[in-house]
């Protein structure tokens, strides 16, 4: 009796246990099936996108971005040729300070506008293409307007402000897509893109000078406007994101996520410090050559050497940052450029050493900007959205240095105890303090290599 009740009880629960196990098994299989389908869909979605770091679309973007870099920046960087022509042919009685303002406004506005343009397009990526088209219109309008300027203030407005606003609208959206098209080779890609400025810095001033002396100011500016449009419009289809715009970002700006990082502040400070003296040698090379008693062509040749050498330097530094520890590339740029200024420029007493300095400094001085993608990867990893935001800060910091370098250098250029007592740069007029300030400030930027001590072990953003 007792045994039957026990057997009866056991047999009555068996079907229920069997049912529960089969139900759980079905649910588990269903979950596995859903997960597999989800992974397959994600893989299929990723495989439908163009490849990263290689392929036609990545290289087409790279070539188009290089062209944008060349056009947007080489026009303002060749303004020195226009300045001389304006002073001697168009506005001989106008204050030089007003005419010089055109050049500083065009470069300064492009740099500093990154703090406005990049946050907006990072939040609203669908605006990038329309903004780029508007940028082309502004650039062309600025050059055309300058061709018909009859007063210096009109040049400031057209060739200075309008062109610079258009350049920033075109340039910064293009640069944000670098982080989508390139990952492991982003340093090299960035160096290649930035080399466009060096190529333009070598070629455009000679082209502009030839056009000005042969055809005059109006024809030159109109020709530049036409060339800008003709060259940039065919590249437009290839200046595009790799990711669908709807997937690029729907997030709000998250400045606090990286501004709390000591790595960010160390690299930002190094970038700011390095940006202040970088343009001082370039700014004073023609004047220094003249004060040293060298030929007029030496000043122009020194600038051509700096710009031409920077093409090689930007690619080299970008490649170094991809292949080796980032700190090696940082030291090559900061320590190398510091020694070049203190030893080669400081002891220049004739044309040979001065031209050697121009080439060496061109390779390692301006090439610091090729390291930005690796700075950014050290802070926020490979997130394209956050990378474009951090890029804003680094470009803006470089812009502050660019704008401040002129007034700072003017204040430092003064006589000191070695003036007139040495045959080289340290004793030439007021260049001694200027050389020391430039070299030591570049050396100070090498302290940025200390960022590594603040990166957590195992950090995926470690570079």
What tags apply to this protein structure?
single chain; mainly alpha; Growth Hormone, Chain: A; 0% strand; 463 residues
Q: Within the CATH hierarchy, at the fold level, what is the topology of the largest domain?
A: Growth Hormone, Chain: A
**Cα distance, first to last residue?**
78 Å
Integer count of domains? 2
Arithmetic mean pLDDT: 81
CA gyration radius, whole angstroms: 29 Å
SSE order? HHHHHHHHHHHHHHHHHHHH
Using the alpha-carbon principal axes, give the shape.
globular
The percent of residues in helical segments reads: over 70%
Give unreliable regions as ranges. 1-44
Question: What is the CATH top level name of the largest domain?
Answer: Mainly Alpha
* Percent strand: under 5%
Keywords: Membrane, Transmembrane, Transmembrane helix
Protein name: MFS general substrate transporter
Domain Major facilitator superfamily (MFS) profile: 263-463
Pfam families: MFS_1
């Amino acid at each position: 009796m007792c045994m039957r009740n026990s057997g009866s009880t056991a047999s009555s629960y068996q079907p229920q246990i069997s049912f529960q196990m089969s139900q759980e098994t079905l649910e588990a299989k269903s979950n596995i099936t859903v997960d597999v389908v989800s992974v397959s869909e994600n893989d299929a979605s990723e495989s439908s996108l163009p490849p990263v770091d290689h392929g036609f679309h990545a290289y087409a973007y790279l070539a188009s971005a290089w062209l944008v870099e060349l056009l947007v920046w080489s026009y303002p960087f060749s303004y020195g040729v226009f300045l001389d022509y304006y002073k001697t042919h168009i506005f001989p009685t106008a204050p030089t300070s007003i005419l010089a303002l055109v050049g500083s406004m065009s470069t300064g506005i492009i740099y500093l506008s990154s703090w406005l343009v990049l946050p907006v397009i990072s939040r609203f990526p669908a605006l990038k293409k329309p903004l780029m088209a508007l940028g082309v219109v502004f650039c062309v309008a600025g050059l055309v307007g300058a061709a018909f300027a009859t007063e210096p203030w009109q040049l400031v407005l057209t060739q200075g402000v309008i062109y610079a606003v258009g350049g920033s609208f075109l340039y910064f959206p293009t640069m944000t897509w670098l982080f989508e098209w390139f990952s492991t080779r982003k340093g090299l890609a960035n160096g290649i893109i930035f080399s466009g400025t060096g190529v333009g810095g070598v070629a455009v001033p000679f082209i502009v000078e030839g056009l000005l002396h042969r055809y005059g100011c109006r024809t030159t500016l109109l020709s530049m406007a036409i060339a800008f449009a003709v060259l940039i419009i065919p590249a437009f289809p290839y200046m595009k994101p790799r990711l669908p715009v709807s997937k690029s970002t729907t997030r709000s700006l998250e400045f606090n996520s990286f501004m709390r990082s000591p790595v960010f502040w160390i690299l930002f400070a190094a970038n700011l410090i390095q940006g202040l003296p970088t343009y001082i040698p370039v700014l004073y090379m023609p004047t220094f050559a003249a004060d040293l008693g060298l030929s007029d062509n030496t000043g122009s040749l020194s600038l051509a050497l700096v710009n031409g050498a920077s093409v090689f330097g930007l690619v080299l530094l970008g490649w170094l940052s991809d292949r080796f520890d980032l700190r090696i590339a940082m030291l090559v740029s900061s320590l190398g450029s510091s020694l070049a200024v203190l030893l080669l420029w400081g002891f220049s007493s004739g044309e040979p050493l001065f031209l050697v300095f121009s080439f060496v400094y061109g390779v390692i001085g301006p090439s610091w900007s090729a390291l930005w993608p690796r700075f950014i990867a050290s802070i926020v990893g490979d997130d394209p959205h956050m990378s474009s935001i951090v890029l804003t800060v680094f470009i803006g910091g470089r812009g502050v240095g660019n704008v401040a370098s002129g007034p700072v250098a003017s204040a430092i250029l003064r006589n000191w105890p070695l003036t007139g007592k040495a045959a080289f740069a340290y004793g030439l007029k007021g260049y001694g303090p200027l050389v020391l300030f430039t070299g030591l400030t570049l050396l100070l930027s090498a302290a940025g290599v200390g960022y590594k001590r603040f990166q957590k072990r195992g950090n995926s953003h470690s570079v």
